[in-house]
Amino acid sequence: MQPPRTGSARACDGLNGCSASFGEVRDRLLLQCAKGCNGAICARRRSGRSRSGSMVAERPVASRKTPPPIAVGLDTRARLPFVPSPEADVATANPNGTLGTHSIRDPHSAPFLRQCLMRPKVAKPYADHNPVTEVAQAYGRALWARRRLPPGDLIDIVDLERRNRTVLMDFASQYGPVFKAIMHRRLVVCVFGHSLGRRVLKEHAKSLRPLSIELESLFPIGFMRGMEGETHRKYRRALVQAISVADLGALAGKFEEIAAAALGAYAANPIQGSSAHAWADVLEQITTSCLIVLVFGVSPASAVHARLVAAYHDLGPHGVVWNITDQQATAFRVLAAELAALRPDAGGLLGQMSAQGPVDETMLGNLIYMVELGRYDLRGLLRWISRYAADNAEWLDRIAAETPTPGSGMTSAEAFVLETLRMEQSERLMRDVKGDFVFDGWLIPKGALLRVCMWEAHKDPDTFPRPFVFDPTRFLGNAPPTDRFSPFGLDHHHCPLAGLSIQMSMAFLRALAEGYDVRGHGAEPAMRGPYHWEPSSKFTVGLGCRRGSEGKK
């Protein structure tokens, strides 16, 4: 419904049947939004029914055991929680270092709330988002549209997940498969299950935008993950075509050679097994080299390879840097210059694309950053693989004894990698909501985040019996269909390098299994890293020479 253009127009408020001016209606809606944000109860919770229609045991709100968020200030007049981000660099701190209470300007003032609701939305970093304002806007939109927001408490799920990784499964049991919360200082709507996740991404693709690193300051258009429409199809098609003609057999051999060389150097190091940093460094070395070979076709023994590795270290010395600074801009220019000089003799995906036609700045920038993001994501996966390898020596024996042949079906190494992805690495899909839409009866408001809960979906006992037990045999024989297991995405933005990522992980696992006995140290408890859950920061690996492997090395 479009609001009247003048305040003298009359409109029904839809609440008590009376007639009032548009300004009066709007102010009344906004005031009710502010007073009801924390106490709004949906009809489903009031009736005690789950989304499937079955009766659920609903605990009284007062007796609910959900722990309160840490360091949350609350303005009792507006009854809206201000939830600081748990990340140290975006938390609001007082001079004494403690988190303080956010104060909002007369939250019961209709003009203030009207300003919150009507203010145009722009892209902002998480630190600049005000959850009070954004929740007020969401409730205002819901009341205006005569729709309900999903059920759920306005608490910081990031902090809760750090303490209890299965907390969203508890929320889904309590509220149903679609519920709301606060995440990174923003309203987030969580969607549970593969079928619902795939449906919301497909049916409302035009209202959703993938969250992505902003790289427009480095090259035109930016990262492929954030592209839409024909632009996205154009660049993705070129990348997929290059991948389709890659020699996977030759690449697998190169990947295993890189992993074996790095593991051999680590095993010969006297400090191996005692330093978590040393193990993380060797995994980063493996993933960076593998991706440079894959994307740019540069031999690990070449001087160009060494210069590219050094430039990538400058680009992100400790992980992906999402806020581009002069350091990233300088490192990016060095990488682009090296690749421009290499291009006539380039191999890998860059060489395949160059053979198809000119590679523009946008495509080259995407290739550079695919390596940057991929080397850290893949390093995290290899950490989990090495952790499970240390805990499951019998699987290393099985992988070492296996001789893969073309057409022989899924190997033990591939099943091991897929089970690791199911257990740990595939966690969530995040989208920005660009416009209001209704899904499964609930209003998903503009400005919110949408989270498709992948880690939890991969713990469905109907698809994966004993879901919290590491068991690669579930992928041997009748592997789960893609509508039940999708570790690399659900929609047209799924990772185009998914298959090659699995190949690199398998090469690492084979090199590990064929050469070494693996001893893990300090794997627990798992911790939430910057982007994914990871083994403990103290986790490291000791390598002992596997009997019978001396002749292979």
Q: Output mean pLDDT.
A: 78
Write down the CATH topology of the domain at 224-402 and 410-427 and 489-545: Cytochrome p450
Number of helices: 18
CATH architecture heading of the domain at 224-402 and 410-427 and 489-545: Orthogonal Bundle
Write down the Rg: 26 Å
> Termini distance?
72 Å
Structural class: alpha+beta
Major sheet characteristics: 5 strands, mixed
Structure keywords:
single chain, 553 residues, alpha+beta, Cytochrome p450, 5-stranded mixed beta sheet, two-stranded antiparallel ribbon, 18 helices, 15 strands, 44% helix, 11% strand, globular
Report on this structure.
Helix content is 44%, strand content 11%. It is α+β, with helices and mostly antiparallel strands and 553 residues long. Among the domains are: 21-147, no CATH class; 224-402 and 410-427 and 489-545, Cytochrome P450 (Cytochrome p450, Orthogonal Bundle). The strands form six sheets. A five-stranded mixed sheet has the order 5-6-11-8-7, sandwiched between helices. The chain has a two-stranded antiparallel ribbon with strand order 1-2. A two-stranded antiparallel ribbon has the order 3-4. A hairpin with a 2-residue loop joins strand 5 (178-183) and strand 6 (186-192). Helix 14 crosses helix 16 (412-425) and helix 14 packs parallel to helix 18 (498-515).
